[in-house]
Each structure stands twice: as C-alpha cells, then as structure tokens.
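Structure first, sequence second, as always.
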C-alpha cells in the first residue's frame, strides 16, 4: 500500500521552530517531486514548498521564504520541512504529497498524507 505519513507537528510559541517529516512506505520517493501544503480553518489548501526528485529545484511561497527550508533524504525515503521563526498565521494542518514531474501546484499530486497539525500560539 502506497502511503505518506507526516510527523513533527505540535504547539509552539511565536518565533519557535519545528521540523516536519514526510515518510513514504510502499514506494520509493526517489522519482517523485514532494510538496508541502497547508490548510487553515476556513481557508483553501495552499502550497508552501516543494522539491524535485533530485533535490536540485525548490520552491517556497512568499509567506514562508527565508523561514522554512525543504530537504530530502532519499536514502531514508523521507522529506523534511524545517519551520523557523514561526508566526501565528502559520497555524494550519500541514500535508505532504508526491507526484511525478516537477510542479508545486496543489492539483496534480497523486499521493497525499493525512496531515500534521501545527499550532503557533503564546
């Protein structure tokens, strides 16, 4: 069974950090672009960051540029999203997704994880 599982979410104070992980089972991530997306209550799902299969191309939404870093370890079949300088507006459910070919739009991703909650609050 092909599955993506996110972990690492939690409650953090403004200015804090978290590292999200996206682990694959049932398939290898080597050939897939991985995207991170988030959805806050009452809002549409939005793209946050993505990385191509070899890790040579990355994208960041303007709202997270300079604060979040995406990386991948294909040997561990895992992609990470480092979240620094967190703000209350970063509060959302964060999802990872996989697709063949490089694109960071929400549509076109074939496999999705169940999401991990990130809450930024004092």
């Amino acid at each position: 069974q092909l599955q993506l599982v996110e972990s690492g979410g939690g409650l953090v104070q403004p200015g804090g950090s978290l590292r999200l992980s996206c682990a694959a089972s049932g398939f290898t991530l080597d050939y897939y672009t991985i995207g991170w997306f988030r959805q806050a209550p009452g809002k549409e799902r939005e793209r946050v960051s993505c990385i191509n299969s070899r890790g040579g191309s990355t994208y960041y939404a303007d709202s997270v540029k300079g604060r979040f870093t995406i990386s991948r370890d294909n040997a561990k079949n895992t992609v990470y999203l480092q979240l620094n300088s967190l703000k209350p507006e970063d509060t959302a459910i964060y999802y990872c997704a996989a697709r063949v070919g490089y694109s960071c739009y929400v549509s076109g991703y074939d496999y999705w994880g169940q999401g991990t909650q990130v809450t930024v609050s004092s």
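Margin note: The chain has a mean pLDDT of 95.
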